Amino acid sequence: MDLTSIPMFSTLRSSMHWLDRRQKVLADNVANATMPGYQARDLEKLDFSKALSAVEKGNSAHHHHFSHGGGAASAGQGTGASSIGIVNSPGSETSPDGNSVVLEEQMMKVTETQVQYQAAVGLYKKGLGLIRMAIK
Question: Which of 68, 117, 126, 129 could link 80 by a cystine bridge, Cβ 3.0 to 4.6 Å?
Fold first, then answer.
């Protein structure tokens, strides 16, 4: 059995991929918090309604709406890079040197992303447990 053929697992994997990619972008922001002129970035929000409608329609290509190769540094490169864009996400304040990274805001986003990732992993594990139980 291929787990990618089960819409729930495919959607969870796509979500985890997006969250992993977002974590890399946020880490890049934190690393550049003291670089003059650096603009904080984030990923475009996931459109859950599109993913849900794709799953309901049985569209196996919905995974490509969320995922693409490369890390935060490769924005605009690689396959499917236009699917998820990295957008400027300035903080609530900009320093005199033009840097828009607010470390407190970035750490809140990192924590939020981590909690969401852990929830997705938990759902994935529970789904696998249900399949194992059904097989027995």
Answer: 68
